[in-house]
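User: quick one, fold this
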Amino acid sequence: MEYFTIDGIPYMDAGTRRTAEGMSTPVRCNFCGGIYDLGTVHVTQRYADCSVWKTPCCGHNADDRGESGWKSFKDYERIRL
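Assistant:
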């Protein structure tokens, strides 16, 4: 679950900010809540509509179809620093 400030900016505590520093594309796993760099994942399968990889935090298979509206549950949420 993502929390927002009164201005609509995603809230990020200091620990999350420290963890995400230096990552090219930080994301939060919606399975376990872990934070990982989407730019460093190893894609295991590619399809016409998505790419699939194992999350480094909990090992679930994740894909990027949630951003296009094909799934009701997104596997990850992007973190804006």
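User: anything notable?
Assistant: The beta strands are 26-29, 35-37, 43-46, 51-54, 61-63, 76-78.
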